[in-house]
Amino acid sequence: MDSVFFSGLFFLALVKATPIAFGAMAGLMSERSGVINIAIEGMMLTGAMMAFLGSVIFNDLTGGTLPKIYSLLAGLIVAMISAALVALLHAVFSIHYKVDQIISGTVINLLSVGVTNFVANAYIDPRGLAGVGVFPVINIPILSEIPLIGRIFFSHQPLVYLMLIMVAVLQYALFKTPWGLRTRAVGEHPRAADTVGINVNRRRYINVTLGGALAGIGGAFLVLESVGRFQKLMTTGRGFIALAALIFGKWTSVGALGSALLFGFAEALGVRLQLGDVNELQALALLAGIGIIVLAGAWAVLKLIRRGADQRRNRTIGILASAGLASIAAALLFDWPSVEIPIQFLGLMPYIATVLVLAGFVGRAIPPAAIGKPYEKA
Amino acid sequence: MATSEARRSSRRRALLGRLAIPLLAIFTALIVASLAMVLSGTDPIKAYLALAEGAFGSQVARVETLIKATPFLLAGLAIALAFRGGLFNIGVEGQLFVGSAVTVFIGYSVELPAAIHIPLALLGGMIGGAVWAGIPGYLKARNGAHEVITTIMFNFIALRIISWAIGVGGPLRAPRTVVPETPAVFESARLPILIPDSRLHAGVIIAVIAAFVVYWLLWRTVTGFELRTVGANPNAARYAGINVEFNIVRTMALSGALAGLSGGIQVLGLAPYTFTTGFNVGLGFDSIAVAVLGSIHPFGVALAALLFGAMDAGARLMQLRTKVPIDVVTIVQGLILAFVAADQIIRRLYRIRTETEEGPVSLSQSWGGGS
């Protein structure tokens, strides 16, 4: 157990968290303005396929004369546009036609599976299309030289950086800008928002559609930064984990990132377990420690943003953080006996965590008040 | 006499009006999906003819249609029942999984006479499904956790636990198999075959009976009255002295039981009588389309299930004849759900007047939060 293992684990967690965080941000944009989004999965799947097709076709059209990076960028843009269009469909159904938003989401998910499988079977597979490749790793000058931290945070492929930037931007935008205030107003009390002259439905259209573009990046990540080609149903439920991260993060982008990281850690630990680098109990202790620290961290960040000067909470955050550190230290220092725990159960964490916060057993996740209801002008 | 005649004819017209939207939605979905076929270079008419032949063209085809319609009917009933109670049970997928697993376990672990074994195994599956739906129901009733999110999460929890249970070294794993699957259930637990030398099993009859039972339950019993009242207006129901919280749990449990039965019948009715990963994946979601297309009425659901079963049964011949990927069926099913749900599109397309008599049933209510 050394720093290489440790930084590798963190590094992998951040990579695994990236598509989940993008998906969660898509849900955030949509749900904060009052439109339920269970169609993140479908938008990501469409984004993944279109990223592949976009990059491959662009590469063919240019005859491979341009550097690979242009094809990859083209793929990314195509993914964003097409996922945004899918989201627009969700918006039209739920806002214009006032279709039950869960039904609309189900339609999107069904159609995405049908269409991507259809295209894969009718077009991609028969032609044996090969991918263009993946985005290169970008080492941030100077910062990537820092021991440990540099390896974890500053030597990634570009979409990981983009994700971190977007989380910060969205958190700021949602709570510190007029756009954010209006978005939240529309999601909490559309009638009041309407009264002060905000166009409720237009705002919802814009938010759902832009959110779709974010989900598209999340899907594109799988093709353009991870696998390198499209595989049928390759999102494998990540859109729903993103939904879980959104709720566990209590409808904030920093919270969603924290949850995505936690789920990413669970996934990364699962990988490490299979490689035999850690044993089960050690992994659990690590996960518990990291989980507590992530929670304390997210809490601290939110508190900083809201500037609530409550001494008692400061102490709680401090105690939580040190408990987390102690748990990690214990995981690293002791020789843990080997116990057989099925590793699939690590993967249950996102789902159970979500159920627990929704039921109010650990903190309470309260959704935007007007979510799911179409707005009708009085 | 004359008035009753007039009433009957007006009722007939109302029924026709109610059928018009679903039928036109199906028609429109087929047209839109044919665009995908044209783009991939096939003649959609040829493809649809092959689809119809594969579904109804021979006795084997018709049997296959019935077999495929059976789980759709039961799962569609599960969703429709929950809708009537004001709940969106999107967790049928997971409940079906749990139900199948319990049924298959009872089916291969004990040996009993068939008259006891089959009902016991199916009952076990129903209880499994009821518990898996009842927990989210309880969390909604007591803590206000929205059932859509909790049941989605329960789907994944079920999937993970069961893939562990039938994985290498798992408790349900059959010995000496390469693929993850359970042992086959004993002969005594297998559903009888209705037509010799065919695959048509007695589950079809069970499903049809279930449709009548659900109809009877909803409109002829106190339970059904309470269920529908809570679904229509929980506040009014509470005012009338109905225990709303208890009803939410009961409705979810009943819905989950139907979902569990749907899965159980699949493992007891169809060779190889085992449970594997990838078993009926997506059925729980397709059944939402079945329930909505069937106007969340048991008999409507039965017709819709027959249609979906026919499409699934005919898809293979269509792929064989015309090289159209089987996935076009998923597209059609998604489009049908879209057009039935957004009936304004259909009304505008075909210039159908909007009737004001009965508003659409509100499917999902407050999203979490206070109850």
Keywords, separated by commas or semicolons:
heterodimer; A: 378 residues; mainly alpha; ABC transporter involved in vitamin B12 uptake, BtuC; 14 helices; B: 371 residues; globular; disordered C terminus
Summarize the structure.
The complex is a heterodimer of chains A (378) and B (371). Chain A has helices at residues 3-32, 40-61, 68-96, 101-127, 149-153, 158-176, 178-188, 190-195, 200-227, 238-248, 253-275, 280-306, 311-333, 349-358, and strands at residues 138-139, 155-156.
Describe the structure.
Chain A has 378 residues and is mostly helical. Chain A has a domain at 3-252: ABC transporter involved in vitamin B12 uptake, BtuC (Orthogonal Bundle), CATH 1.10.3470. Helices cover 72% and strands 1% of the residues of chain A. Chain A has 14 helices and two strands. Chain A has a two-stranded antiparallel sheet with strand order 1-2. In chain A, helix 1 (3-32) runs antiparallel to helix 11 (253-275), helix 2 packs antiparallel against helix 3 (68-96) and helix 10 packs parallel to helix 14. Chain A is globular, with a radius of gyration of 21 Å. The relative contact order of chain A is 0.17. By secondary structure, chain B is mainly α. Chain B has a domain at 71-316. Chain B contains 14 helices and no strands. Chain B has helices at residues 2-39, 44-56, 59-84, 92-109, 114-143, 147-165, 203-220, 222-232, 234-239, 244-269, 283-293, 298-322, 328-341, 343-350. Chains A and B meet through helix 4, helix 10 and helix 14 of A and helix 5, helix 6, helix 11 and helix 13 of B.
